[in-house]
Amino acid sequence: MLYPGDYRSGMSGEAMPQAVVEPNPKAENIFSTDLPRLDIFNAKNLSELKEHSLDFWAKSDANAARIWNQSFGPKNGFEEMIELTKKGKMWPYPINNEYLLVGIDVWRTKLADYHLPRTGPIAHFMELVCVGLSKNPYMTAEKKKSHLEW
């Protein structure tokens, strides 16, 4: 006896005999294959089946789930990084240096030496100037171009 008053035992330690349930051999088999099928989920009808949900309630449920999950805070570092990315405090992966910058081409900021001379001491000096300008992330492309045209 595991617990006092165990339903399977009568007196303490004496097990009561269990009743054995026998299936009725005259009962009809509901899993037989000779019965006609309903064909509710056949391949032809699957394209006709569609979800009947309202967009408003789907958005409301998603908003409620987001609010509920925010109350717990991040569980680990990955969830914390995801939250910071959604708030705009971290850049999304893969890292893109032009994230949230519209209308700025990378070739204008990094490859600004396309119109400079190719040989001679001026070319060497201008190459050093271009390398220095390309390392400065705080200058705009227009300001770098004005330095090169000077």
From TrEMBL:
One of its GO terms (molecular function) is structural constituent of ribosome. The keyword Transit peptide applies. Its main location: mitochondrion. GO terms for cellular component: mitochondrial small ribosomal subunit. It is found in: Mitochondrion. The keyword Mitochondrion applies. Pfam families: MRP-S31. Keywords: Mitochondrion, Ribonucleoprotein, Ribosomal protein, Transit peptide. InterPro entries: MRP-S31. Belongs to the mitochondrion-specific ribosomal protein mS31 family. This is Small ribosomal subunit protein mS31.
